[in-house]
Design a protein that fits this description.
heterotrimer, A alpha+beta, B mainly alpha, C mainly alpha, B: mainly alpha, 13 helices, globular
């Protein structure tokens, strides 16, 4: 088990393009950290640098207490699970899992013992004699994980391992991975573009965009108090409602004026801003509440679509005078709402977030 | 609570600056080296040497002087292109004409037949695999065997072809000469096509099978007949492959040698006015008359022409060749 | 409507098989003629006179001509060429498939150019070079095994690189990444992982090279002059010069010359056809 530390890490392919730009990060021993972000944000490159598959242009990488920049991949104490499983097609499952040990000239009985132990953990014992092409996607993924377990690494690296599985299987595997982490307790670094996987698996999430870190925190922290607009819109489904607005007053509570004319209050500390500043107002769909016309701060809206999901419903609305859309999430089916209805909604200030023109969040009022 | 820590305790920083240098990765170069060296020796070197040789007077007397033989500038080129006294020049016009005609006829025939049979094989029928393998056999037969065999078959009196054409099917009134006179052209074209179209068929078959069935389904729903589907779907999708293969075929056929040289008996074989091709002519005359300088000049001219041809072809069809179905 | 489609289908089938038969007729004729007697062939009586098959031709061809030498030489030279050329082109193709480095584009361009301007075109300089190496440095290249093998390997490697590259590109990079993490060196990953997986492609390419080498007449004719080194195509050509009308023996020799490549083709045809088609479609 080991911690992983990035210090001012950069990666460049040539003079002008930086894929990773001055990133510093500390991952604790035994943590499950998820790197998340859109395609091309650099998260996979980060993982490959830890693995030793990519060179580090600048900065220092420490795995455990060793400087790992120039160590060959096989000596870093890491094991990696790939998106496409990367199982050697000409070897059986058992041979795949034992390959690394064979290369290290581990004695045969030891190899067998460890392979079988890993196979038991993942319940793939009966598959040991088969070749990868005879296995289903989920089975192959387990073998890939098993191959990593056998190496008894200090850090597990996962590169979008569930992307190629169908939705139901993905859900099951998520649970398995979580259980695995609790069983083994090893540091795990997991890369994905799927924010559901990030939210459910991570001890801490690191959000990447454009080669830089946009936010680090526990799922709860990043969900409730996203540090930036990017993080706010990336996590959570359906996505957070975001409105362009102007600050119309700051004391006693910052009030923003939307294009539709509605004024919404947000319980944040905007003391550093000035009246008239451009801001972005955000509120999660589940916090939008339906009410009556005479409630304070109620906003008029017209329903354009209702998506019924069984356990909940997403109500799409349009704000007058500008066509801004508002989404609300309600538990169950909203019996008294229909297409085209005009309703009143309330955006409670304690759930409203405010972001400045640069995308940074205003801190919460305690 | 964002958590970007900047540690201040100095960590082990041994030799980071040394590690920062761009490691020169020699691995791919090592892998490439044997092939590149060989290509330089056998392709580049002879071209350079050939160019120099074309500027020298190299005959049986001066050959031993190698590259120090007397320098004659562009004399060789002049002889080859203009003076009627040069044995190479004598046959060059005819050989050039033959080669161009031969190449065109063979290339077009091979592609058309290859495409046609590929279409035939692109269906499901019992024994399809067997048929495909059987059709490949003419290509597997060595080209010199092809030349020998067809030389035997083209015999005027006893050759099987004339026997079939005249004695059995009565398609012709009398047995023509195939290995003398104008018939020699067809005598070399037909075996070349026979041996050449199977490979093209294979390539076209693979290309046909990579056309998504969806396109045909959509066309069928739109009411397109099979013929229309061929014109509007199959041909456009195949165009890149056809264009590339056409070019390769032309290049291959220009340099044709084996079949011609084996077909005309007497070892070094003289194919006559209609059957002589560029390379056989060049080889024969250069060696028979010790005209190494002139021969190199011809080689150089051919190279220039071929490079021009390929250059023009690629520019003209660049868009078509790189488009994917 | 159905009925007509079915009829069309059957007609096309018949057409297909007709083409197969017509295509194979010359080969059948070659084999048949090899079993006839000289008298019959010259007399134009190949098809009548009963079905007396004269196997004696296949014995005579080895005794009347030094065919054993030629055949042995061909086997050795083509075998060695296949081995070496496959090796060289596999390494080069792998480098080009996996790495982008300065000079890789030039190398690819160079390979294309060697097809447009083949070694065959500048045979005179090559011949003179070989002579010169002997005169100046005492290095015998003309009329030697190694002289021919080196040339053949150099001639056939570029085209093979083309084909093999397609195979290597189709292998996911992740496999090598996984191998490196498991502890392989890059060379180890190539040998233990890539080579076994690309075995079909390598076999296909090796067969292709063997076919090309076995087919080579031009340089074999120019660069050799004694039966100790000369190959089958040269032998047959000399034979034609010597025994002009002995078509019976000639056809027997032709048939025997075809057997090795036929065998190689049949043994590897599955890989071969798949490989040739795939590599060619990619251009």
């Amino acid at each position: 088990m080991a911690s992983v530390r990035f210090q001012n890490i950069s990666k460049r392919y040539n003079e002008h393009e930086s894929v990773i730009d001055d990133v510093s990060l500390h991952i604790d021993d035994g943590e499950f950290v998820v790197f998340v972000g859109p395609s091309g944000c650099g998260k996979s490159t980060m993982l490959r640098m830890i693995a030793g598959l990519e060179d580090i242009s600048d900065g220092e990488l420490h795995i455990g207490d060793r400087l790992a920049n120039d160590e060959p991949a096989s000596r870093r104490g890491i094991a990696m699970v790939f998106q496409n499983y990367a199982l050697y097609p000409h070897m059986t499952v058992a041979e795949n899992m034992g390959f690394a040990l064979r290369l290290a000239k581990t004695p045969k009985p030891e190899i067998t013992r460890r392979v079988e132990a890993a196979a038991d953990t993942l319940q793939i014992r009966p598959l040991l004699g088969r070749k990868p092409k005879e296995l289903s996607g989920g089975q192959r993924q387990r073998v890939a994980i098993g191959r990593a377990i056998v190496r008894d690494p200090q850090v597990f690296l996962f590169d979008e391992p569930l992307s190629n599985l169908d939705a139901a299987l993905r859900g099951d595997m998520r649970v398995e991975l979580s259980k695995l982490h609790h069983t083994l307790g090893t540091t795990m670094i997991y890369v994905t573009h799927d924010q559901v996987e990030a939210m459910t698996l991570a001890d801490r999430i690191v959000v990447f965009n454009g080669g830089k870190i946009q936010g680090i925190g526990t799922p709860g922290e990043l969900y409730d108090n996203p540090p930036s607009l990017f993080v706010a819109s990336f996590l959570g489904a359906p996505a957070m409602n975001l409105f362009d607005a102007h600050l119309s007053s700051i004391e006693p509570m910052p009030t923003s004026r939307l294009a539709s004319g509605a004024t919404i209050q947000a319980a944040v500390d905007a003391s550093k801003a000035a009246v008239g500043d451009k801001v972005t107002l955000g509120i999660r769909p589940e916090h939008v509440a339906f009410s009556t016309a005479d409630t304070l701060g109620a906003v008029l809206a017209r329903i354009t679509m209702i998506e019924y999901l069984g356990d909940s419903a997403v109500v799409h609305m349009e704000l007058p005078g500008g066509g801004q859309t508002l989404r609300a999430k309600t538990p169950g089916r909203p019996a008294d709402l229909g297409f085209g209805d005009t309703v009143h909604v309330v955006l409670p200030p304690e759930h409203c977030l405010l972001f400045d023109a640069g995308g940074q969040a205003f801190p919460r009022r305690p | 609570m964002t958590d970007i820590q900047h540690t201040t305790t100095p960590l082990r920083t041994t030799a980071p600056s040394k590690a920062r240098k761009r490691r020169f990765d020699s691995y791919p170069y090592l892998l490439l080296m044997p092939a590149v060296l060989m290509m330089l020796c056998v392709n580049l070197l002879p071209i350079l040497q050939g160019f120099w040789m074309s500027l020298l007077k190299l005959n049986q007397y001066t050959l031993h002087q190698y590259l120090d033989a007397p320098f004659v500038g562009l004399d060789n080129y002049r002889h080859v292109l203009m003076s009627p006294g040069s044995p190479i020049r004598a046959g060059l016009a005819g050989a050039l004409r033959n080669t161009v005609l031969y190449t065109l006829v063979v290339t077009i025939s091979s592609i058309v037949i290859g495409l046609g049979v590929a279409l035939l094989l692109n269906r499901d029928f019992p024994g399809k695999r067997l048929a495909r393998t059987a059709l490949m056999l003419p290509w597997v037969v060595p080209s010199y065997v092809v030349g020998t065999l067809w030389g035997f078959m083209w015999q005027k009196d006893t050759g099987i072809i004339n026997v079939v054409l005249v004695d059995w099917l009565h398609l012709l009134p009398s047995k023509p000469f195939w290995l003398l006179g104008p018939g020699t052209f067809w005598a070399i074209v037909i075996p070349t096509v026979w041996r050449g179209w199977p490979v093209l068929m294979l390539i076209f078959l693979a290309a046909l099978q990579s056309i998504p069935q969806d396109l045909y389904d959509a066309a069928a729903t739109d009411g397109a007949s099979k013929f229309r589907q061929f014109i509007h779907i199959t041909l456009p999708c195949l165009l890149p492959v056809i264009v590339i293969q056409f070019m390769f075929q032309i290049i291959d056929n220009i340099y044709s040698y084996n079949i011609v040289s084996m077909m005309f008996g007497n070892g070094a074989g003289h194919p006559g006015e209609w059957g002589d091709l560029l390379m056989p002519l060049l080889t024969r005359q250069s060696f028979n008359y010790w005209l190494f300088g002139q021969g190199s000049a011809v080689s150089f001219v051919i190279m220039a022409l071929m490079l021009m041809f390929v250059g023009m072809w690629m520019t003209a069809f660049k868009r078509r060749m790189t488009s994917d179905a | 409507m159905r009925r007509r489609d079915h009829l069309n289908h059957q007609l096309l089938n018949i057409l297909t098989w007709a083409i197969v038969v017509v295509s194979l007729l010359p080969i059948a004729w070659m084999v048949l003629s090899s079993l006839r007697s000289y008298g019959d062939i010259v007399g134009g009586k190949q098809l009548d006179g009963g079905f007396s098959l004269r196997w004696q031709n296949y014995v005579d061809m080895w005794t009347q001509v030094d065919f054993l030498s030629y055949f042995g030489n061909s086997l050795f030279i083509c075998g060695a060429t296949t081995l070496l050329a496959t090796l060289a082109s596999a390494c080069a193709a792998y480098a080009l498939a996996r790495y982008r480095f300065r000079g890789s584009d030039a190398a690819t361009l160079g390979i294309t150019v060697t097809q447009v301007v083949p070694g065959m075109l500048f045979f005179l300089p090559l011949y003179m070079l070989y002579q010169h190496l002997h005169q100046q440095y005492g290095l015998r290249m003309l009329n030697t095994y190694h002289g021919l093998i080196f040339l053949y390997v150099a001639l056939f490697t570029p085209a093979s690189i083309w084909i093999m590259r397609g195979f290597f590109v189709s292998i996911p990079r992740e496999l090598e990444d996984a191998a490196i993490i498991d502890g392989c060196s890059r060379l180890g990953a190539f040998v233990r992982i890539i080579l076994p997986i690309s075995a079909p492609g390598i076999i296909a390419t090796a067969t292709f090279i063997f076919l090309l080498a076995w087919d080579e007449l031009f340089f074999a004719w120019i660069l050799t002059d004694s039966p100790s080194v000369q190959t089958v195509p040269v032998g047959i050509r000399l034979f034609i010069g010597q025994f002009e009308h002995r078509y019976d023996l000639l056809m027997a020799a032709a048939t025997v010359s075809t057997l090795p490549v036929l065998a190689a083709f049949f043994v590897t045809q599955r890989y071969f056809i798949k490989g040739l088609a795939a590599g060619a479609v990619k251009g």
